[in-house]
Write a structure and sequence with these properties.
single chain, alpha+beta, Methanol Dehydrogenase, Chain A, 12 helices
C-alpha cells in the first residue's frame, strides 16, 4: 500500500506534461510508455517505436531489454530521443532506427541550469556563478567575490535540505533564472555570516571513523540575526554585474527565492515579491536589470499574514501582462480573489468575487482579455474541490468550464492555448484530457482504474464532512476502512495527522502525497482518519487565521477530537475508546501534542521528526504562523510544557542529522518527560535527516509494530520490510 508501490498499480494516475518547444505539443510518461500529444490535430501517439528501441538498446548495451520494461531515465524528447540507461547516455533515432552510445554527450547535471536557447549552462563553483557553453568550448566566472556564507545561487542552510542532498549524493540545488533571450542571469546573493551555528553529530560515519560534526546556520524565532538576500543580474555577453539598489531583504523561507521572474519577451524587467519578516506586508517590486533601480508597484498589509498563494510553496498568483497591467491575488475581502492593477499600481479593480477563492491562475489571454483559473469553494458538497473557470479581466463573463464533484488539477503550457485537466476524487483515479478554452475535450489521455489495487484488498477512503468543536463550522476528512472489513467488528482508530497550517491535509483528489501510509494501517486492521480542522489553508481567510496566535493547538486538535467522536456515533464499528495518532514533521509535533492535550481520548502516539519546541524551530513557523515570539508565546508552542500530562504510550522517532526540525527539539521533550518521571519510548536513527530517507522501511515497521502491540492489543509478526526505493530528482 505504500506510495512507491501504490503508484505502480495505477499507472497514468500522476501524468506530468513535458512541454515541447513552442508549447503547442507535449509528451508524458505512463509506466514505461512515452506518449506525444498534439492538441492542434487532436492526436495522441507513441513518442517512438518502443519495441524497436528496446531491440536496438539490447544489442548496443549487451543487456536484455523489453519494451514493457524500458530501463531509461533522464529522457529528452525532440528530433531524437536521448536518455540514460546502464550508466551511459544514449541517442535513439526513430526514423533511422539507430541507438548510439553518447560517450561525449554534454549532459546537464544536477545543480546546473541550461539557458532557454540551450547555448549556455550555469553552475556554481566555490559559491560563485559560472557558465560554460553547451559545446564546452567556453567556461568563465560571472562573479568572483563569493565568500563563506555570503555567496550566490544557493539556499539557506536551514531550508536547503543539505543532509538530504548528501544522502542522495546530489550537489546543492542552484537557484538562477535565465532571461528569455539567454543573455542574463537573475540570481540571489545570500548572507548568512552573522547567523548562529547549530552542530549536528553523525555518530556512525560510513568509514567507521570518529564521529563527524556537521555545522549549519540555523535562525530561530525572535533572534535578531536572520538570512538576508539581494538580487543580482549577471550578463553573459559583456560579463557585467548589476546589483539591486537598497538594503538586503530578510528571508525566513526559501519560497522568497523563487518569487521572482523576468517580464517582457526579451526580459525588459524583473518583478519580485517582497515579504516583511512578520509576513504582514507583501509587496510587488520591479527591478531594472540594467541599473538595479527598484520600484514598489503594489503594497498590501494586514493584521495577520498576507500570502501570495492559498498554500505555501505554490506558484505566486501574480501575473504581469504585456500591457504592464498586473493580476494580483489577495484575501483582502476575506476569501482569495484576483484584482487587476494598472501598470503603475495606482488603479485597481476586482476581477473575481464571491464566497469562494481562486486557487491557481492557469492561462491569461491578453488579446481576448480573459483569464482561466482553478477555483475552490464552488462545489456545495466540498469546499476543497477545485473547478476550472474563466472570466474577463473586467470581471464580466464568469464561466464554469467544469461543474461536477471531481477535483480538477489543471495545467497550461507557458503560452496558454489549451488546458491539461486531471480530474479525480479520493476514490477515482485521475481522468486526464486536453481541453480547449471553452472546456471542450480535444484529446483523451489516460483513464486508469483501481483493479490492481483492489486485488490487494484495497478499498477507497470515504470523504466525510463533520462539525468542528465550535458546533457550527463544517470540516472535512478521509476515512479508510480496514482490509477485510466486517461491520460487526469494532476497530481501533489511527489518526494520520499533518496540521499545516501552511497547507491542508485530507484533500479530495486521488493521489495525495501522504496516501500509502494510512492505507498501510488499514491493511493492518485499523480504521484510519485524516482530518482538516480549522486553521488550515485552502478555504476562507478567517478559517485559515483560526490557527494564528494559536499554533500550539496544532490545526485545532479539538476539531479533530470532535470529528472522530462524530464518526464514532455515525459508525458503530469505530472503537473511539481506542484511538491512536501519528504524523511526521509538524505531524510529529501534533501527534505528541494530541497525546498530551487530550490524554483521555488519544492513548497511543508515534511522533516522527517532530518540531516539538517551536520556540527553537525555524524562525518562519513562529513568526509567520503564530505571531507571538515573546517568552510566553514560545512556551505556548512547546510540547515540553505539557510533559506532565502524559498517560498513554508514546514513541518518539528522530534522525540525528535532521537539519530541518533538529533532533534537539525531541530531546527537549525527552528532558521534560524525564523530569516529570514519565515512561516513553524513543528511537534516534543514526545518519538520517528529516525525511529519514534510506531508513524509511525501518521506522515504518517500528511504527506499525507499536500500534499493533499497544492499540490493537496483539503481538506483531516477525516480518521485515525491504528498503523502499530511494527518491529520484529530475527523473
Amino acid at each position: 500500500m505504500l506510495a512507491p508501490y501504490r503508484r505502480r498499480r495505477v499507472p497514468g494516475s500522476s501524468l506530468q506534461p513535458q512541454w515541447l518547444s513552442g508549447g503547442t505539443r507535449f509528451w508524458y510518461q505512463v509506466g514505461t510508455q512515452f506518449v506525444v500529444v498534439d492538441p492542434g490535430d487532436g492526436s495522441r501517439r507513441d513518442a517512438f517505436d518502443h519495441d524497436r528501441l528496446a531491440t536496438a538498446l539490447s544489442v548496443a548495451s549487451h543487456h536484455a531489454v523489453t519494451a514493457a520494461d524500458l530501463p531509461i531515465t533522464r529522457v529528452e524528447i525532440g528530433d531524437s530521443v536521448r536518455f540514460t540507461a546502464f550508466e551511459s547516455r544514449w541517442e535513439w533515432s526513430d526514423s533511422a532506427g539507430t541507438c548510439v552510445r553518447l560517450d561525449d554527450d554534454v549532459q546537464v547535471r544536477p545543480g546546473e541550469v541550461m539557458s532557454p536557447d540551450e547555448s549556455w549552462v550555469a553552475f556554481r563553483r566555490d559559491g560563485n556563478i559560472w557558465v560554460r557553453s553547451y559545446d564546452r568550448e567556453q567556461e568563465f566566472a560571472l562573479t568572483d567575490d563569493a565568500e563563506p556564507q555570503f555567496d550566490y545561487g544557493g539556499l539557506p542552510d536551514a531550508t536547503g535540505a543539505r543532509a538530504l542532498m548528501r544522502v542522495l549524493g546530489l550537489p546543492p540545488p542552484l537557484l538562477v533564472s535565465w532571461s528569455p533571450d539567454s543573455t542574463r542571469l537573475l540570481v540571489q546573493r545570500l548572507d548568512q555570516r552573522d547567523l548562529p551555528e547549530l552542530v549536528l553529530i553523525e555518530s556512525a560515519p560510513h568509514d567507521g571513523g570518529r564521529p563527524v560534526e556537521h555545522r549549519t546556520r540555523y535562525p530561530m524565532p525572535g533572534e535578531e540575526a536572520q538570512v538576508t538576500m539581494s538580487w543580482t543580474v549577471l550578463n553573459v555577453v559583456d560579463r557585467s554585474v548589476v546589483r539591486q539598489d537598497g538594503p538586503p531583504t530578510v528571508i525566513t523561507h526559501p519560497t522568497a527565492l523563487v518569487y521572482a521572474w523576468w517580464t517582457g519577451k526579451a526580459g525588459d524587467a524583473v518583478h519580485f515579491l517582497h515579504q516583511s519578516r512578520d509576513a504582514r506586508t507583501l509587496e510587488l517590486r520591479r527591478l531594472d536589470p540594467t541599473s538595479g533601480a527598484t520600484t514598489t508597484l503594489i503594497s498590501e498589509s494586514g493584521e495577520t499574514r498576507v500570502d501570495p498563494t492559498p498554500q505555501l510553496g505554490e506558484p505566486p498568483m501574480v501575473h504581469v501582462l504585456e500591457s504592464g497591467e498586473i493580476l494580483w491575488w489577495s484575501q483582502r475581502d476575506g476569501w482569495g480573489h484576483v484584482y487587476l492593477y494598472s501598470a503603475d499600481g495606482q488603479q485597481v479593480s476586482q476581477v473575481t468575487a464571491g464566497q469562494w477563492l481562486v486557487r491557481k491562475i492557469l492561462w491569461v489571454d491578453e488579446e481576448r482579455r480573459q483569464v482561466w483559473f482553478l477555483a475552490g469553494g464552488l462545489n456545495e458538497k466540498d469546499p476543497y474541490v477545485r473547478q476550472i473557470c474563466r472570466i474577463g479581466l473586467d470581471g464580466s463573463g464568469f464561466t464554469r468550464l467544469t461543474d461536477d464533484d471531481l477535483d480538477h488539477d489543471a495545467l497550461s503550457p507557458p503560452d496558454g492555448g489549451y488546458l491539461v485537466d486531471r480530474a479525480s476524487s479520493s476514490s477515482q483515479p485521475p481522468r486526464s484530457v486536453v481541453l480547449d478554452g471553452d472546456g471542450a475535450v480535444l484529446v483523451e489521455l489516460e483513464s486508469p482504474g483501481t483493479e490492481r489495487l483492489e486485488t490487494l484488498g484495497w478499498s477507497p477512503p470515504e470523504r466525510f464532512r463533520a462539525t468542528a468543536a465550535d458546533g457550527k463550522t463544517p470540516i472535512y476528512g478521509l476515512l479508510w476502512r480496514p482490509h477485510g472489513f466486517d461491520p460487526q467488528r469494532r476497530y481501533p482508530v489511527i489518526e494520520h495527522i499533518y496540521p499545516g497550517p501552511q497547507i491542508y491535509r485530507a484533500g479530495p483528489s486521488f493521489n495525495e502525497p501522504h496516501y500509502g501510509e494510512p492505507e498501510a494501517f488499514a491493511a493492518l486492521g485499523f480504521a484510519v482518519v485524516a482530518v482538516d480542522g480549522r486553521g488550515g489553508a485552502g478555504r476562507s481567510k478567517a478559517f485559515h487565521d483560526h490557527s494564528y496566535g494559536d499554533l500550539g493547538n496544532a490545526g485545532a486538535l479539538d476539531d479533530h477530537v470532535a470529528a472522530i467522536r462524530e464518526l464514532g456515533h455515525r459508525y458503530s464499528w469505530l472503537d473511539t475508546g481506542r484511538v491512536g495518532i501519528t504524523g511526521q514533521s509538524a505531524g510529529g509535533f501534533a501527534a505528541a501534542r494530541a497525546l498530551l492535550m487530550y490524554p483521555e481520548f488519544y492513548s497511543v502516539a508515534v511522533s516522527v521528526s517532530g518540531n516539538h519546541d517551536n520556540g527553537v524551530n525555524l524562525a518562519m513557523w513562529a513568526e509567520h504562523y503564530h505571531g507571538d515570539v515573546s517568552a510566553e508565546g514560545k512556551r505556548a508552542i512547546s510540547n515540553a510544557t505539557l510533559a506532565a500530562n502524559l498517560e498513554g504510550k508514546l514513541l518518539l522517532i528522530h534522525g540525528e542529522l535532521d537539519d530541518n526540525a533538529h533532533p534537539y527539539q525531541t530531546l527537549r521533550l525527552v528532558d521534560a518527560l524525564i523530569k516529570a518521571d514519565k515512561d516513553f519510548d524513543m528511537l534516534i536513527i543514526p545518519g538520517t535527516e528529516h525525511a529519514l530517507v534510506g531508513r524509511t522501511h525501518y521506522f515504518l515497521r517500528r511504527t506499525w509494530n507499536y500500534f499493533v502491540r499497544h492499540l490493537h492489543g496483539t503481538e506483531p509478526p516477525s516480518h521485515r520490510l525491504a528498503p523502499l526505493p530511494m527518491p529520484t530528482l529530475g527523473g
